[in-house]
Amino acid sequence: MSNDIAGRETGSLSYVVMISIVAALGGLLFGYDTGVIAGGIGFLQRHFELDPAGQKGWAAASALVGCVIGVSVAGLMSDWLGRKKVLIFSAILFLVSAVGSALPESIRQFIIYRIIGGVGVGAASITSPMYIAEISPARIRGRLVSLNQFAIVTGFLVVYLANFFIAGYGTRIDRGLVAGHIAEHGAALDSVAVARFIDDSSEDIDAEAALAFTTDKGPELTAESVVGLLAECKVEVAALDVELAGYGIDSWCVGKGWRWMFGSESLPAVLLLVLLFAVPESPRWLTKRGHSGKALSILSRVDGSEYAERELADIKNAIAMESGSIGQLFQPRMRIVLVIGIALAVLQQVTGINVFLYFGTEIFKKMGSGTNAALLQTVVVGAVNLGFTVVAIRTVDRLGRRPLMMIGSAGMGVCLAAMGLAAYFGRTEVWLLLFILGYIACFAMSVGPVTWVILSEIFPTSIRGRAMGIATVFLWVANYIISQTFPMMDESRWLVAKFHHGFPFWLYGGFCAVLLVFVMRFVPETKGKSLEEIEKFWMTRTG
Question: Is the entire prediction scored with pTM above 0.85?
């Protein structure tokens, strides 16, 4: 990157990078808010005594309802009020949701605040990449918009780590207090059950050794022997958390820990809210609203006065061709743009990525991993997701959008086919993890970030917010459908009998093939083109 030169003649690349990073914090909160439920839902269920069949699922999925509401209104609001104001609105919703989700007295209050947070997620999911696209020079626009996806996966990884450390604090419970609770309830713990938990929690003691140790203490363990067992085997109280709960004992995580998990989101929310006041409004939105002088000043600071004057002229010409009505998208020459946007949004989700983000730990357990190993493998998935998003950022403006999308969708399809075969034949060897990580890598370097790049580029400026809103509504609906149907397919007796848990992976692999063909046939290359050039292409095309 060039040095920061604030003059109007040359512009400042570091300036546009910094304001893009601030906008991308909306993506980080997108990932943080979406991922925090994974660590807190089990403790939340026990705290409020939720019904596993209905209430637990609604507590986890309620934010998605807010997401659909958010994308439905954010597009119109961003075209009306401006991109910056909608991002500020999203940051306020994130903050309200974080504080409210940490302090509910009932599950109803918790769900209300989760829906509020979902509205913020939905609004940020379209406004952050749209704002970055509209303020970035064409030659680096792909990389800067990809920062948003990088921020999303960073949000997932950060919240996984935050949940881990918060839950870890809860393991440092006084063992004498645990013994007192057990004694108070007159309970004794089954030695075989304790052995199982020790095996899951200690790398130094295997199942047979743990069982031998516990049975030496007798068929049932007293409170005192449990405490001694924990001390001798170096097993933290959290490892026995589920077993202890059966005797009316709640850990710190059940009582307070989950509140800190949800409340921790307030820190990045405040950071986003404060920094947003230092970034400018979108120059394209300003021009549309008649503030050409302000737009020219911002564009000059981005890439110099010569670029600013040329870009402003192109923006004005493009606006002159626009009707400013959402009906513009339904005109014969523009209808294909809306179809492409909706199709890409849906196909990004139905290729199965959120199955691994939401249910990764359970998938690894079914592959034969213990609890700790499954959690570690999930962290590895998050790290690979983050690392290969960097690959997309470095290559999207050099290789182009279409090649990355085609390479990624093909690679995802191959990996999903291999996972389906492994599930069908009941194979759980280490090589299977390589295919899972390969699938994540292919998504992270292509379909994940590049879909958002394309969606932020292809729609006309005057209705870009509303058009992205329509496409993103379909994206969140597809997300909800995939999240709800995977457990149904994976636990269906008929499908398991026929395909041995392989069916969902083959279904998602089939959608990868559809995505590959769709990109080859219908998606144009937008690398290196200004937003106005892309808009002119759609307005003048005859095919």
Answer: no
